[in-house]
DNA sequence: TGCACGATAATCT
DNA sequence: GATTATCGTGCAA
């Protein structure tokens, strides 16, 4: 049905903002013990070097060190006492920056995702960063994983049947610092994108 | 359809 | 002790 090819690190832009745009329309795949879950990435946000809203802004700590790994590594953090969020590091080794994966259009393993998010419709299954991580079963255990290596969590080239996305841009959701910067990217018209209608035009 | 609000814990000051 | 890159519910229209 779906045939995803692993993206090589050399295919990823070495720039957090470019990576955020690049990842729209690509695939995220989790080969979990219970089976494969995958989807099309439809919404991202860039947290770039020098950005006061970025977790990496004040330098490396035990919590955010994964943001300083070379581009293509996972940074997973726990927020509001309840949710995990998945990022992809976006800069060269030693430079802090990352792309928050905010929403996915489910492709494979829909039943597995629904088991983790009972009652959620297909559109709402991975619509939002916390929901995305919950649906795919992503936790702190995945922090620091290389998404370009032969591990369980990886980035895939678009399915051959997928259309090229029309990419929209807006300010980021939920941030108070540097709130004006247009660093959120999304696929126009995709019902799995989170956020208000006004942001998604 | 669109807000307001509380839950909840890791992290940092 | 304050802050937080969220979510689900509840209530109003």
The top-level CATH class is: Alpha Beta
Structural class: alpha+beta
Give the DSSP E fraction (strand runs of 2 or more residues).
25-35%
Count of strand segments: 8
In total, how many domains does the architecture comprise?
A: 1
Q: What brief labels describe this structure?
A:
alpha+beta, eight-stranded antiparallel beta sheet, DNA-binding, 3-methyladenine DNA Glycosylase, Chain A
Characterization of the model:
The chain has helices at 16-23, 110-116, 129-136, and strands at residues 27-32, 35-47, 74-79, 83-89, 98-108, 153-156, 167-170, 184-187. The chain is an alpha+beta fold. The protein has one domain (9-187): Methylpurine-DNA glycosylase (MPG) (3-methyladenine DNA Glycosylase, Chain A). Strands 1, 2, 3, 4, 5, 6, 7 and 8 form an 8-stranded antiparallel sheet that branches. A hairpin with a 2-residue loop joins strand 1 (27-32) and strand 2 (35-47). The chain is globular and about 40 Å long. The mean pLDDT is 96. It binds a DNA duplex (13 and 13 nucleotides) through residues 45, 47, 53-55, 58, 61-64, 77-83, 85, 87, 100, 102, 128-131, 172-176, 196-197.
